[in-house]
Amino acid sequence: MPEGHSVHRLARQFNDVFAGSVLAVSSPQGKFAAGARLIDGQALERAEAHGKQMFLTFSHELILRVHLGLYGAWDFGGDSTFTGASSIGAPRRIGEQEVAGDSGGWGHGGPPEPKGAVRVRLVSAHGWADLRGPTACEVLTPSEAAVVRRKLGPDPLNNLPGDGGEFGRRIRKSITSIALQLMKQEVLAGVGNVYRAEVLFRLGLDPMRPGKSLQVEEARALWEDIAKIMADGVRDGRIITTELGDRPSGLGAAVGRGLDAALLGSRPNKDVPVQDAHYVYKRVGQPCRHCGTVIAMAELGGRKLYWCPHCQSGKA
DNA sequence: GATTAATGCTAAA
DNA sequence: TTAGCCTTAATCT
């Protein structure tokens, strides 16, 4: 269940390793055979991310739209030219979690036998990419792609001028709870269940507040914090929302003992233990990192919502 | 080894 | 509203 940061890393990876290259496109699984024929043999012009969706534009202007959904993922492999072109560390896999390291599988100048249900395989002169388990995978014309993108709200990782204000107008339009609205891709594109829970905690907002009740200033702060922690996610390749001083182990503890946080340099979130990465997400029953109150959980709109009943009550 | 839940969305009913 | 995608890590026996 990758959120927007993973999709932006994917787009970067495709631009790094495939842009300008002619791609052989196939569907080993067979389910995308017709679509694959439409783009087979074309050069990839560019990759773009909008929220949780990725758009690959080919030289004849057709566009491959991919949404990873619940457990979709891309696997990569290739020669040294291919891995060397990656600016994000030549990952072996990008999906719900990112896997680093060598994929093997370019031994005889080509990709390995597809394992499992590979919906799409892309092969260039130097490497390959396999897509499994996507929710959406289709070839669109430019105008069809524009229709899809018009339905999406602003993406905090693109953060174009005016996007913050547009987000504020959209979320303040409805009495629907801000917890539900943050998951709506037409309000803002890219936030999922982890960032939703974490940003509401970071700003001390009650998840059940109606969007309409947000002050303009509160909506702006919400947008800015989402943009910040998601940009961290793009940099780190994982979701880490805790501040250094709120981490009980590892370097957070060292800082607590007096180590200068500045020593951490450009990688402030390097090697954060998983149990220290979040404030509330999947921490039901555990003590709040700020006040010790037991973290609560409830099902809302079919998804689990986590929050601190004290820090996010409006009384804290 | 078997079962379950999961950082979503789509399409059928 | 519900099934489906068909993977993976964590949890259970």
UniProtKB/TrEMBL annotation:
Enzyme Commission identifier(s): 4.2.99.18
Domain Formamidopyrimidine-DNA glycosylase catalytic, chain residue ranges per copy: 2-89
Q: Which UniProt keywords apply?
A: DNA damage, DNA repair, DNA-binding, Glycosidase, Hydrolase, Lyase, Metal-binding, Multifunctional enzyme, Zinc, Zinc-finger
**Pfam families membership:** Fapy_DNA_glyco (PF01149), H2TH (PF06831), zf-FPG_IleRS (PF06827)
Recorded hits in CDD domains, A to Z, give: AcNei1_N
Family matches, as Gene3D superfamilies:
1.10.8.50, MutM-like, N-terminal
Biological process terms from the Gene Ontology for this record are: base-excision repair
Q: Does the keyword Lyase apply?
A: yes
Query: Per its UniProt entry, which superkingdom is the organism in?
Result: Bacteria
* FPG-type domain sequence ranges: 279-313
Q: Which cofactor does it need?
A: Zn(2+)
**Which GO terms of the molecular function aspect are on file?**
class I DNA-(apurinic or apyrimidinic site) endonuclease activity; damaged DNA binding; oxidized pyrimidine nucleobase lesion DNA N-glycosylase activity; zinc ion binding
Q: Its family?
A: Belongs to the FPG family.
Q: What is this protein called?
A: DNA-(apurinic or apyrimidinic site) lyase
Species source reads: Arthrobacter psychrochitiniphilus
